[in-house]
Amino acid sequence: MIAESKYMGCVVRHSLKPQPCDPADGDRDAFVKYSKLRPDFGLENVFECPLLMLGPAASFRTKTPLPFLGGTIPMEELLGRDIAYDLRAQGHQAVQFAFGLAVPFPFTYG
Q1: Among 13, 29, 61, 110, which lies 20 to 30 A Cα-Cα from 101?
Q2: With 0-12 CB in 10 A as exposed, 13-18 as middle and 19+ as buried, what is 91?
Q3: Residue 2 lies in a domain
């Protein structure tokens, strides 16, 4: 017989960059993502700053179901303030989508 769950939980289906409001109690694998912009932005260095991300299948304990975890990463965090300022002056905007769909499931303790 399965013990009754005292906590709600969620499994995230995609890679994500956790936000300050996201739960921290859970099981996950972290990795560093090295992305780059398309070369037609006119930058000498198309590589973005390294991002610490959580991989798919990260699981968390929550008190209520959540629709997703993570969020978008603003251009300043991706590229640095100077490069972001230059791109905005050219009329460009870049963001990194770093959120994952959270599928609810009950946590049980055995």
Answers
A1: 110
A2: exposed
A3: no
On whether residue 36 sits in a domain, the answer given is: yes
Tell me how many domains the chain contains.
1
pTM of the model: 0.73
| Within-domain flag for 28 | yes
Tell me what pLDDT residue 22 has.
92
User: Cα–Cα distance between 10 and 69 in angstroms, integer?
Assistant: 9
User: pLDDT tens digits, residue range 1-57?
Assistant: 445 556 688 999 999 999 999 998 888 899 998 877 666 666 666 666 788 899 999
* Long-range pairs of 43-47 with CB within 8 A, sequence gap ≥ 24: 43/83, 43/86, 43/87, 45/83
Largest CA distance in the chain: 63
